Amino acid sequence: MQRLSGFSVSRARDVKNALLFNSFHTQHTFSTAAAESTQESSVGRKFASYTIFKGKAALQAYPVLPKFCTTSSGFSRMEKNGVVMLVFWPAIGTRKYDWEKKQYFALSPTEVGSLVSLGPSDSCEFFHDPSMKSSAEGQIKKSLTIAPANGQSGYFANLSVMNNLTKTNERLTVAITKAEFAVLRTACSYVLPHIMGWDQVIGQEKQTQPKPVVDRPHPEFEWSR
Amino acid sequence: MQRLSGFSVSRARDVKNALLFNSFHTQHTFSTAAAESTQESSVGRKFASYTIFKGKAALQAYPVLPKFCTTSSGFSRMEKNGVVMLVFWPAIGTRKYDWEKKQYFALSPTEVGSLVSLGPSDSCEFFHDPSMKSSAEGQIKKSLTIAPANGQSGYFANLSVMNNLTKTNERLTVAITKAEFAVLRTACSYVLPHIMGWDQVIGQEKQTQPKPVVDRPHPEFEWSR
Amino acid sequence: MQRLSGFSVSRARDVKNALLFNSFHTQHTFSTAAAESTQESSVGRKFASYTIFKGKAALQAYPVLPKFCTTSSGFSRMEKNGVVMLVFWPAIGTRKYDWEKKQYFALSPTEVGSLVSLGPSDSCEFFHDPSMKSSAEGQIKKSLTIAPANGQSGYFANLSVMNNLTKTNERLTVAITKAEFAVLRTACSYVLPHIMGWDQVIGQEKQTQPKPVVDRPHPEFEWSR
Amino acid sequence: MQRLSGFSVSRARDVKNALLFNSFHTQHTFSTAAAESTQESSVGRKFASYTIFKGKAALQAYPVLPKFCTTSSGFSRMEKNGVVMLVFWPAIGTRKYDWEKKQYFALSPTEVGSLVSLGPSDSCEFFHDPSMKSSAEGQIKKSLTIAPANGQSGYFANLSVMNNLTKTNERLTVAITKAEFAVLRTACSYVLPHIMGWDQVIGQEKQTQPKPVVDRPHPEFEWSR
């Protein structure tokens, strides 16, 4: 639907096919991680993202919700924050993109906070180590920089992936217009309380309120200390 | 409910009748596109919009949600973005409007982003070609300009429709006060994540979480590359 | 919970009793309008408001949702906008308020837009005629002014009710701190799409989407003209 | 998930265990207040928070919803505002925190309004007396100050608890980066209408609307006075 960026029909179809392929590929990758349960649980699941196609690369963003676990006491607590997943992949010709070379960068709630509070002349930089919890720590380094474009007309998002094993350093840059950044800012502000799990705390409380029991953390609880 | 703009009773009634008629007309048009299924599915459906009546024309805005399709694998993905639909129609006398001459302009998510990030002295312009995907491409050109009014008291929304076949050029202009623009900005910011489909990604995830399977795109998934 | 404004216990209790009484009184008034059906339908209904108690008067705000009507075709359309209802009532002694002298002022969506976009040194004024649609038009005039306090530390909300029949002119003024105004602004921004009915358009669309019929207003509909 | 602050694995685990313990402790405390009903009602309940770990102390925030009570007439009204609960607890070594020494500070809606409207060079201060409604009034004084850090790079949150009985004065200070404050601001803005109960007013109205009775507070109700 990138009418602004002037896609022609055939081009849009290429992109669409690419995305369709992506989607299956992505689904497959999830399957790898989730074993046989995915096939079943994907029935009825929904995917939606926001994608920006530019001359040298494309950028896609979508929300990933937090994960709750049920304790032995029967209540559930957030085990892992959600994220806003960013995917970059390079152009390999005029209006052709190579999804196979995609690179992921998962924004934590605090990184999303940094993004949504970015002033027109501010920039921010995040560093991730995908192997942080393994023996391979430090071998791959990712950094994402978001810096203002000239004349405050938007931003440049620059993802750099340095791989010490393959001695490669991939750089993917996507220009984000002011309007596109407003979409990201608005969507990320909307989604932030959801990746923090606060909407689920709120949703479930309401269901228990019709019950006449006093079982919630009492505001005056503060006073008891 | 445009008390601010001082409608009298009779006038408001004219408008109401016009809108009632519109609604049936609109419904009918949808039927044309959707065949016999509409009659049935319209039961229980809801319509709401925000309308600004001014001296020379009226402007109506309402959200249209994205469309998801179900894949053969059983999950569903957004097939088409939602939009914020703008409808302009001209005044044909004091407080009388001709709905038959209405013109549509569907704002994509990025165009909505442009609208909600508009500073008090900013302006924006969008170009649409309704025949873009057909042999008639270029014969009708629509452009929407939103530009600040004098003294930053609001904006002018100007829709121009140039038709090379009928050699006509219709222009419809509606002054939007600062308060009315705040309504549009707030409502469009609210609706943006919904026309992007992000609320549906979020809503359905929550339902699958009570299940003890690990079937979601894992934040650490980023690390696996 | 107005800890900031320093209520003592007994005072808070007075206020609570007053509000309890109010609530029943209000409920009763609604009954008058809604006949016997209210008694039944109030079961399970919920009331919540935000109230500011100040030296000379109190101000309460709460949302009132729009009203949809079902057409003969089976779909429903918004018949009447929702509002943010403001209620002012005077103090009649130290920390005592006379709810019987309450005055209502219902903010339309556009007036809410004016409120939420108010800059720190802006002011706004709204005029309502409660008898606008009757022979008594012009006999009672209400005006609400919201103007910045000295030093941009907040606003004064001033309600004036001029009654030509009783030759009275009541004025009720409540100082709103910057923090209290932030609550009103945030809550009103939140509630605006709801009093416009947009959340209901969005909510119901999602339910119809699992159906494999193409029955929604198509974004490309714009192109068909 | 505090990648930004550079936690190593073992450290993160310490924190996690601490939080797990916290959670049970917290749960237990709730049980004390809520007697036997909690055990049952906690099944299916959800907990989520946002936590900032810094060198000298940690700060956790989570929403607590308002409490509604059912009146004899069958409708329910908000009896007690929700809050945003802040919990501070001290570090007791490098990356070790003592949850046993936690201090609570419950932000009312107006205090949340103060927080979300804080400009980059503004500060605010709140005073709470946990014994305000008892004979022990004045013996414990809590104050929370949020003041800008040098160079507008964020804020310092400073909680002071003065206990006249034990002659102690505990001070807990947490530096909040600009990004972390954006998370708090966004999450608190999101949650504000919910702790005010406005979302519940809105949610329940929608359910009663399909009924063809006119039983809602009418906007024109204002005119009737």
UniProtKB/TrEMBL annotation, chains A, B, C, D:
Keywords linked to the UniProt accession: Transit peptide
Ranges of Basic and acidic residues composition bias in the record: 213-225
Matches recorded under InterPro entries: ssDNA-bd_transcriptional_reg, Whirly
Pfam families recorded: Whirly
GO function terms (MF aspect): single-stranded DNA binding
Signal peptide location: none
Region (Disordered): 206-225
Domain of life of the source: Eukaryota
GO BP field: defense response; regulation of DNA-templated transcription
Annotated PANTHER family: SINGLE-STRANDED DNA-BINDING PROTEIN WHY2, MITOCHONDRIAL (PTHR31745)
Family membership noted in the UniProt record: Belongs to the Whirly family.
Name of the featured protein: DNA binding protein
Species this chain originates from: Rhynchospora pubera
